[in-house]
């Protein structure tokens, strides 16, 4: 018997719903595109480029529109012999300082084998090397720093690059920086001198509304999904869910993709509303897991205390009992424990995040008290914790207790 069998009744090109797919066509962004083109016009005219700062929530098309326009720009300036345009793009997500971004840029520009190491050089040396590489290319160079907010306040490069010409670090090369940020606050926290230069042209992409998302989904579904494999109203439903939550095309596309996978696994002929519902709850759970990773140490320990109670099949569990568990965990991790009151605050935060649920119990003379239990599957909670807490043996013990109690 075959173990693997091809399933292609739902998707025609599933990759077209994925992270790395670049659409040939951009929907619903005409005004933004016009403004963006206007900011890029000096490149075509042979002048020094504007520095551009583009911001908007995740999934609103910042990267897609930038890639699309810069491709067109490169095609179109090829007609002018006196414009020699190069584009260098770096995603800063995993780079959290100017230094690392500068090293990444240098290494992108150097031939394989000539890369420099990401530690050890003084910052100014790395900047000098970068100028050397830029000069070697010459002409007009647009440097795209996507998700640039992740460099935080270590933003010297954003001060340096736009001034490289004025400071005689660049001679024959015209450099423009396009900074893209998911976080508008990033702009405000920049040094005012950086703001002035980097944000020469500022573009904002607003969230999409439901009809816009539906159009984006429709044009993508045509490429990605087999003919007739989407039930009437499903795209509308995905668009409505994403519009209500984030206005992100990424979220809408993720919902559709996962709904399609669920349909496939259930051997359905087409994607139905139920599949979207299932996809929605699964994506929600993933988001909660991400939330767990962002907790503070004490938030995590408080959560681990509840997880430990759950493993013993003792939840819902009262704050006082959770607190005992928590102090024991603090002891074994060598962390000073907080007072019960503060732990109670952490527990209510966890409730707000949708990680715990709480019950208020009335107990006559002794007043009311709360008890808590996990509001997420035990397995995903303990998985998430073992990723973020260095308490291997405690977590292993909790797993063993859970399996003894058939808690899964
Ligand atoms: N206007 C649009 N037309 C077509 N596809 C879009 C549009 N906006 C976003 N997308 C798609 O949605 C997803 C998220 O967009 P992206 O550009 O990565 O968002 P951002 O960079 O703002 O986080 C990508 O798959 C992208 O191709
Ligand atoms: Mg992006």
- Supply the number of structural domains: 3
Oligomer: single chain
CATH homology-level superfamily of the largest domain: P-loop containing nucleotide triphosphate hydrolases
CATH fold-level label of the largest domain? Rossmann fold
Structural class: alpha/beta
Label the CATH architecture of the largest domain. Answer: 3-Layer(aba) Sandwich
What small molecules are bound in this structure?
A: adenosine-5'-diphosphate, magnesium ion
Strands, count: 8
Q: What is the number of helices?
A: 16
* Shape estimate: globular
Residue-averaged pLDDT: 90
Distance between the termini: 32 Å
Order the strands across the largest sheet as they lie in space: 2-3-4-1-5
Low-confidence stretches: none
CATH level-1 class of the largest domain: Alpha Beta
Please give a structural write-up.
This is ORC1-type DNA replication protein. The structure is a single chain. The protein is of the alpha/beta class and 408 residues long. It has 3 domains: 175 residues, 3-Layer(aba) Sandwich (Rossmann fold), CATH 3.40.50; 84 residues, Orthogonal Bundle (Helicase, Ruva Protein, domain 3), CATH 1.10.8.60; 104 residues, Orthogonal Bundle (Arc Repressor Mutant, subunit A), CATH 1.10.10. Helices cover 51% and strands 12% of the residues. Strand 7 and strand 8 form a beta hairpin. The longest helix is centred in the C-terminal third of the chain and has 21 residues. It is globular, with a radius of gyration of 26 Å. The mean pLDDT is 90. Bound molecules: adenosine-5'-diphosphate and magnesium ion.
